[in-house]
Amino acid sequence: MATIVKWQGSGMAFDATASTGHTVRMDAAPEIGGENTGPRPMEMVLMGLGGCTGIDVVMMLQKLKQDIKDVQIEIESERSEDIPKVYTKIHVHFKVFGTDLNEKKVQRAVDLSAEKYCSVSKMLEKTAQMSHDFEIIEV
């Protein structure tokens, strides 16, 4: 797997292109020379966490024949005051929308993602206190 990150020639904007060919723009805040044209790199880390754990949970719930309609992941975080400003606390909250969802199956999917399958979560737990919970919303 390879990624190419290229400065866009002015300000602090960088385009990152993944080995799959998909590109995303990252930028910095205006107060440090950015133009706010994309998420900050540390925001991308949390987005990656949400995508990774979301894929796990959706796949497991589908395999468990749960009638899910939507899954939303809300992530709250805290960072160190000292440089490097790594994440020190991350809380992942799942909102699982569906019909007649089995609470134990949802709990198992969320737990397995956090504790075993989500590679991003496993990397982040090296510096951050990780926690997670969920709520089921009947639709």
Structure in words:
With 139 residues, the protein is an alpha+beta fold. It folds into two domains: 3-32, no CATH class; 41-138, K homology (KH) domain (GMP Synthetase, Chain A, domain 3), CATH 3.30.300.20. Helices cover 32% and strands 36% of the residues. The chain has three helices and six strands. It has helices spanning 41-63, 103-117, 119-124; strands at residues 3-7, 14-18, 23-26, 67-79, 87-99, 129-138. The protein has a three-stranded antiparallel sheet, with no helix packed on it. Strand 2 (14-18) and strand 3 form a beta hairpin. The longest helix is centred in the middle third of the chain and has 23 residues, at 41-63. The chain is elongated and about 50 Å long. The relative contact order is 0.15. This is OsmC family protein.
What radius of gyration results from the CA coordinates?
A: 17 Å
Count of domain modules: 2
- Tell me the name of the CATH class of the largest domain: Alpha Beta
The CATH topology annotation of the largest domain reads as: GMP Synthetase, Chain A, domain 3
* CATH superfamily (homologous) name of the largest domain: K homology (KH) domain
The oligomeric status of these chains comes to single chain
Would you identify the regions where 5 or more consecutive residues have pLDDT less than 50? none
Order of helices and strands: EEEHEEHHE
**End-to-end distance:** 39 Å
Determine the strand fraction and express it as a percent band.
35-45%
The whole-number mean of residue pLDDT values reads 97
Strand pairing plus helix content: what structural class? alpha+beta
Approximate helicity band: 25-40%
Major pleated sheet: 3 strands, antiparallel
How many β-strand stretches? Answer: 6
How many H/I helical runs?
3
Strands ordered across the widest β-sheet: 1-2-3
Any idea what the shape is?
Answer: elongated
CATH architecture of the largest domain: 2-Layer Sandwich
